[in-house]
Amino acid sequence: MHPDFLTVGEVARLVGVSVRTLHHYESVGLLAPSQRSTSGYRLYSADDIDRLHTILVYRALEFPLEKIQQILVSGTAPIEELISQRDLLQEKQEHLQSVLDSVQTMIEVNTMKKTMSAADRAKASHAQYRDEAEAAYGSTDAYQQSAQRVAGFTDQDWTRVSDRMDAFEQACARALAERVTPGSDEANKLAEEHLSLMQDYFDCSYNQQVLIGMTYVSDPRFTAHYDQRAAGLAAWISAAINANAVIHGVDIDTPVWQ
Fold it and tell me: CA angle 138-245-129, nearest 5°?
């Protein structure tokens, strides 16, 4: 075998694709081996492998084979499309990093739960988002009121808050499993219980409750927390909050923090 060429099996192992894929690329005219041995075996050069790497990059970007072939023939990369794909990949990367951070937080919290009291768990959960809440709402009356109330919490208060929240989440998970519809009497009662839970911290309005509920589906950390208990629970709680708020005159399409 010529030392400067690789067989189809060697290329497949080197690049991480199947032999069948290489055969398919050849059949559609995308990647033909530069030579064949005297026995008829396909032989790929370094240039062939470079071309294969290029093909695989475009395939990872979900370009169709016909489009890739046009690019290779023209020798011109579609800059606008590449920029668009790059931006999408960056968004996916940021989303996955956020999810990864959420999973890590869940691991840490679940590990701590084995040794922490209910009061300590509630304190740790509150502290986890304190800096973000201050950055977003630090200038509002609601944040100042919450800070004052929390400062006066005893361990008994923290335990009460933790137990109430756990009972609420369990009740919502049961409602979801039983296909309780947001807007029904049972779902509305749970939405009112959620409002009461928020009012442990500050005088939460229905408008503010809706905005809080929105974070359950927009922030992967909250979504992961609720969906760990039951898949789809975060979205169900948010929908139940919205349906109940409509009854109380809230425009859920344009809620305001008031």
Answer: 30
C-alpha–C-alpha distance, residues 43 and 6, integer Å: 5
Phi, psi at 35, each rounded to 5°: -140, 170
Residue (of 195, 192, 198, 208) closest to 255 by Cα position: 208
Cα gap 56→61, rounded to integer Å: 9
Coil, helix or strand at residue 228: helix
Phi/psi for 6 (5° steps) reads -120, 150
What is the sign of the dihedral through the CA atoms of 42, 44, 48 and 52? positive
DSSP string for residues in 76-104: ---HHHHHHHHHHHHHHHHHHHHHHHHHH
The token pair at 174 is 């049961």
Question: Among candidates 136, 156, 155, which has minimal Cα distance to 146?
Answer: 136
Which residue's structure tokens are 């956020």? 98
| pLDDT number for residue 75 | 77
pTM of the predicted structure, to 2 decimals: 0.54
**Region at 191 (left for phi over 0; alpha for psi -120 to 50; beta for the rest):** alpha
3-state secondary structure of 35: strand
Three-state secondary structure string covering 107-143? HHHHHHHCCCCHHHHHHHHHHHCHHHHHHHHCCCHHH
The whole-angstrom separation of Cα 238 and Cα 192 is 12
Give tens-digit pLDDT for 24-56: 999 999 999 988 888 888 999 998 998 999 899
CA separation for the pair 154, 228 (Å, rounded): 29
